[in-house]
């Protein structure tokens, strides 16, 4: 008879998504440098096109087996992906990075709501508690200045970015099980690149002069995007959108750790925020017997999709 565990070890997929957040934590500086030499839509266009080529080379002859479901899934995810990146970058021109981080973090509580609405699967009570702790941690990291009540153009753009990011996470889980991870990744990166490129004339963004700076940044982040999107499409075949959102909330923790290793000072609020986020990740995994009994459930091993 198998041993019942109520605090299971992380699965390979969950560890892979944690690795994604570690990589994300180190991208802000590269993106900040790139934005000094080109616009956000052009950069997303070039970055995602490079990433699509990288994954396409990896997929090889598998690209010949594209089906309609993979085209549709990739296009929807790609548009959501590009929209989130472009709107967040555009919003950063009008608001501080801390306020942007706070508003973008709204995708964390939005994901379980979207999961409930579109996937018809209500998150477990402990998942809601984990989401609440992670979001509280993100508020601590953002600082009191991010909580002001003013709501301008940059705020609205960043809020729309958070909605797009939440939609992307749910869409990946919605389509992940019925598609090939490599083919759908190529399609979503290509669709995201094309969408960002088409937004350029609409928004009046011009093509910048060639610079080895933005080209190098796009090449580096394009390779990163290729790796990250393949991992997300593979891992979210068995990890629910809510659990993925809690894991992704750890991104600023890893970014802060990198900064600390580089000599940055971490104030108490940052340490508290990091602790709350880690606590949220751990709490979302708990399934205490007393709670299962209260909910009228048999104590059981946590499933991957809770």
UniProtKB/TrEMBL annotation:
<dbReference type="InterPro" id="IPR000620">
    <property type="entry name" value="EamA_dom"/>
</dbReference>
<keyword id="KW-0472">Membrane</keyword>
<keyword id="KW-1133">Transmembrane helix</keyword>
<feature type="transmembrane region" description="Helical">
    <location>
        <begin position="156"/>
        <end position="176"/>
    </location>
</feature>
<feature type="transmembrane region" description="Helical">
    <location>
        <begin position="100"/>
        <end position="119"/>
    </location>
</feature>
<dbReference type="InterPro" id="IPR037185">
    <property type="entry name" value="EmrE-like"/>
</dbReference>
<dbReference type="Pfam" id="PF00892">
    <property type="entry name" value="EamA"/>
</dbReference>
<feature type="transmembrane region" description="Helical">
    <location>
        <begin position="125"/>
        <end position="149"/>
    </location>
</feature>
<protein>
    <submittedName>
        <fullName>Membrane protein</fullName>
    </submittedName>
</protein>
<dbReference type="GO" id="GO:0005886">
    <property type="term" value="C:plasma membrane"/>
</dbReference>
<feature type="transmembrane region" description="Helical">
    <location>
        <begin position="15"/>
        <end position="35"/>
    </location>
</feature>
<keyword id="KW-0812">Transmembrane</keyword>
<dbReference type="InterPro" id="IPR051258">
    <property type="entry name" value="Diverse_Substrate_Transporter"/>
</dbReference>
<feature type="domain" description="EamA">
    <location>
        <begin position="16"/>
        <end position="141"/>
    </location>
</feature>
<feature type="transmembrane region" description="Helical">
    <location>
        <begin position="71"/>
        <end position="88"/>
    </location>
</feature>
<feature type="transmembrane region" description="Helical">
    <location>
        <begin position="42"/>
        <end position="59"/>
    </location>
</feature>
<feature type="transmembrane region" description="Helical">
    <location>
        <begin position="212"/>
        <end position="235"/>
    </location>
</feature>
<feature type="domain" description="EamA">
    <location>
        <begin position="153"/>
        <end position="282"/>
    </location>
</feature>
<keyword id="KW-1003">Cell membrane</keyword>
